[in-house]
Design goal:
The chain is an alpha+beta fold. The protein folds into two domains: 4-67, Arc Repressor Mutant, subunit A (Orthogonal Bundle), CATH 1.10.10.10; 74-254, 3-Layer(aba) Sandwich (Chorismate lyase), CATH 3.40.1410. It contains ten helices and ten strands. The chain has a six-stranded antiparallel sheet. It has a two-stranded antiparallel sheet with strand order 1-2. Helix 4 packs across helix 9 (184-190). The chain is elongated, with a radius of gyration of 23 Å. 21% of the residues are buried.
């Protein structure tokens, strides 16, 4: 049998799902809710904590509890890579009009806020092994964040790696001020004579670190998806590696695999 705070939480949950409490609405104060349900304030707090853990409400300290607003969903499919490859050879005027984030979210370029930072690092053993180069090889580490202009959290956390000597053939590839790059990484690689043959994606899941939960603004209990993307060129070399941390509450990954007929 449900205890008192669970029954209160269920009543509020039903009000949210029925639209009686809408996204962004402020809930009555804890005192008002205690009066309404004839229960103590600590019982109300337990009910609200349960709804926060479910991601239905959020607390703004000093202000109150609010119905959590829906965040823009990201629909990521494996067909995006062929879309990006085709786009990489289009004229710049066309490449500037849209990008992968717009492709995955349905938003427009002007809807987005973009951040990029580059730095040179030495490859650790794991990344060096993935590239097939000696540890200590110079890499360009690129950090990306993109968010919807009316939201404060990025869609994901991206760290991308290029071998520095390869990227240095085009000095613009070492310059973060050139971002966002029309045509993305596939066009960047095209400028140094590289065509991609295939992309491998490895997906796992785990609880977020405290830093990830804060930056992605995750409700308690929300997992993150970890995607490692490895890009191979037509000579079977690994030419780019990306580690992407995706929030589990707004990301859908959709894979379609055509099968040969008998």
């Amino acid at each position: 049998m449900a205890v008192a705070y669970e029954r209160i939480a269920d009543d509020l949950r039903q009000s949210i799902r029925a639209g009686e409490l809408k996204r962004g609405d402020r809930l009555p104060s804890e005192t008002k809710l205690a009066e309404k349900y004839g229960r103590s304030v600590p019982t109300i707090r337990d009910a609200l904590r349960l709804l926060r853990d479910e991601g239905l409400i959020e607390k703004q300290h000093g202000v109150g509890n609010f119905v959590r607003r829906s965040r823009t969903a990201v629909h990521r499919t494996n067909t995006r890579h062929q879309w990006e490859k085709k786009r990489a050879r289009e004229p710049q005027v066309l490449r500037q009009k849209t990008g992968a984030t717009e492709h995955d979210t349905g938003l427009e370029l002007d809807d987005l806020v973009f951040y990029a930072a580059y730095r040179e690092i030495k490859a650790g053993k794991e990344v060096a092994d993935a590239f097939g180069v000696p540890p200590g090889t110079a890499l360009v580490e690129r950090t990306y964040r993109t968010r919807y202009r009316v939201e404060s959290a990025p869609f994901n956390l991206v760290t991308s790696y290029l071998i520095r000597d390869l990227a240095a053939k085009n000095p613009d590839l070492l310059d973060e001020t050139k971002e966002p790059w029309p045509g993305g990484t596939q066009n960047q690689l095209l400028t140094v004579g590289i065509e991609l043959d295939r992309i491998e994606e490895h997906v796992t899941a785990r609880p977020p670190t405290p830093e990830e939960a804060e930056e992605l603004e995750l409700p308690p209990g929300t997992a993150v998806l970890l995607l490692r993307k490895i890009s191979y060129d037509t000579d079977d070399r690994v030419v780019e590696i990306s580690d992407v941390t995706l929030p589990g509450d707004r990301t859908e990954m959709h894979f379609t695999t055509p099968l040969e007929r008998w």
